[in-house]
Amino acid sequence: MSRKIKHSILVLVGLLILNFVSNRVYKRFDVTADKRYTLSDISKRLLNNVDESLVINVYLEGEFPSEFKRLQLETRQFLNELKAVNDNVYIRFINPDDKRDKLIRKGMLPSQLTVEEDGKLSEAIIFPWAEILYKNKSELVSLLPDTAFKTQEEQLQNAIEKLEFSFANGISSILKSQKPSIAVLSGNGQLGDIHLYSFLTAIKNKYRLAKFTLDSVQKNPQKTLNNLKKYDLAFIAKPTERFSEEEKFVLDQYITNGGKSLWMVDNNFSDTDSLYNEGKMMAFPRDLNLTDLLFSYQVRVNNKLVQDLYSAKIPLATGNVGNQAQFQHLNWFYNPLVTGNPNHPITKNIPPVRFEFTTQIDILKGDIRKTPLLVSSELTKKVGTPAFVELSSIAKEPKQEEYTSGPQLLGVLLEGTFPSAYNNRTKPFNVENFKGKSSENKMIVLSDGDIAKNQTLKGKPYDLARDKWTGDSYGNKEFLLNAVDYLLDDTGLIYLRNKTLQINLLDKQKAYAEKRYWQILNIILPLTLLAIFGFAFSYLRKKQYSA
């Protein structure tokens, strides 16, 4: 047998072995520095639970701004990673132009973008949405989260960073056979439905919501406790009436039995209607009878109001032009504008959160883990109550030497085992299987109830994320959504929000200013070099063969 035939046979056998191995072993390599195409173990575990066809319709197809082509590309790349893990995943990119009305009816609202090309501005509308379909259920995924970033480039960066979280969150929701349940507590003067509408509407598709009152504790406290235990989270938004010992004991045993809780506590009474109508109001402490209960969880909500030079604006009439009142938006130091903890998934990359007439929180020593979530700026001043608050003070130049109280804690996450406030104390009523300590649990305490209160416009609820007077955007809704997700997340899914990527975006202004230079460098220069090479090669060839 000749050597050539032997080599041919060896090559053929090698190709057959390589083909066999490639069909049996599949491996993708992520060579990016930030491992942007490497799925987390959380996403892989979710995909392993997909046992039937899971279809993902992505409406990023068609003509839209060039920079958002990057979002389309990154989305396609990421979804290919999902399909590589589970063959039951099917991906479809769909042009939304012929389906706009249908998509809007489903809740996929379009985004209007300002596009800058060749130094000119124009408007474009895109549908940055995906829809997950699985076992006769559907879940919407926003590919362009509605957050207040200064530039579209920052918004695009945030959208790409949150791709895995957004899709994993959607897949997790659609795989659950039963949604977690939230008890919205009422009966102690909490915020009404119209003022919680914006927030509750945002979470109603992901969680089961029900209003729960503690009034029945007077007649049948054990039944009230048993009913509350059926819920995964108690949402307590700005109670204004005193809690009885029986009501506190129900909440105490709910927490020691594993119930999560989100507290928004106003420890002062402040009537903003009097402030606007009369120009002043009296702020004074409110007795909610919660101090000992929260003290057992190693936190204390104080009564002193916090003023912060870094604050939100309010509208103030400054005069009249004809019959029209003229308004000016001025900083109101009683409304601190608070930046979130950048190292925690609840508060990372959210806009500043607006507080109204808030107080500070003290944390006490103990084994419960305390993570600050919302902290004021350093330029703060504490005002003892009772005290008069005058609207005219907004026009006074602040004396910076008075604002030296330092950062004030306004929101804290508590995690660990929570002791009962009724250990070694007389119980308000006999309870079945009293628990003196919880297993691993978590809660969030905020020193302001208005953080969840949306405004109303013409009798209808307004978006919690925006101010109807100034048009400014705030992070209140996003913070609360993340807080609820974190409290009810047992898989660590929300930690995917911490994913950070380095997206290299084109500097449009620089590109436009240097347009001619780059056109010459990339088009004319290569053609010129190619022509010189051709002439030189032809000349040398003629010279060589003519000799």
Which spans of ≥5 residues are poorly predicted at pLDDT below 50?
none
Global mean pLDDT: 86
**Strand composition percent:** 25-35%
Q: Based on helices, strands and strand pairing, what is the structural class?
A: alpha+beta
Helix content: 25-40%
Description:
- It is a single chain.
- The protein has 547 residues and is of the alpha+beta class.
- Helix content is 31%, strand content 28%.
- Strands 7, 8, 9, 10, 14, 15, 16, 18, 21 and 22 form a ten-stranded mixed beta sheet that branches.
- The radius of gyration is 30 Å and the shape is globular.
Descriptive tags:
14 helices; 547 residues; single chain; globular; 10-stranded mixed beta sheet; 4-stranded mixed beta sheet; alpha+beta
Strand and helix layout:
Layout (H helix, E strand, L loop, with lengths): L2 H22 L16 H8 L5 E5 L8 H19 L3 E5 L6 H6 L5 E7 L2 E7 L2 E6 L2 E6 L9 H10 L1 H13 L5 E6 L6 H11 L4 E6 L7 H8 L4 E5 L7 H12 L3 E5 L3 E2 L2 H7 L1 E6 L5 H6 L2 E10 L2 E11 L2 E17 L12 E2 L4 E5 L5 E7 L4 E4 L3 E4 L18 E11 L17 E10 L9 E2 L2 E2 L14 H12 L20 H6 L1 H32 L1
Parallel strand pairs: 1-2, 7-8, 7-9, 9-10, 10-22
Antiparallel strand pairs: 1-5, 3-4, 5-6, 11-12, 12-20, 13-17, 13-19, 14-15, 15-16, 15-18, 18-21, 21-22, 23-24
Helix pairs in contact: 2-6, 3-5, 8-9
Summarize this, please?
With 547 residues, the protein is α+β, with helices and mostly antiparallel strands. The chain has 14 helices and 24 strands. The chain has helices at 3-24, 41-48, 67-85, 100-105, 152-161, 163-175, 193-203, 221-228, 245-256, 272-278, 291-296, 476-487, 508-513, 515-546, and strands at residues 54-58, 89-93, 111-117, 120-126, 129-134, 137-142, 181-186, 208-213, 233-237, 260-264, 268-269, 280-285, 299-308, 311-321, 324-340, 353-354, 359-363, 369-375, 380-383, 387-390, 409-419, 437-446, 456-457, 460-461.
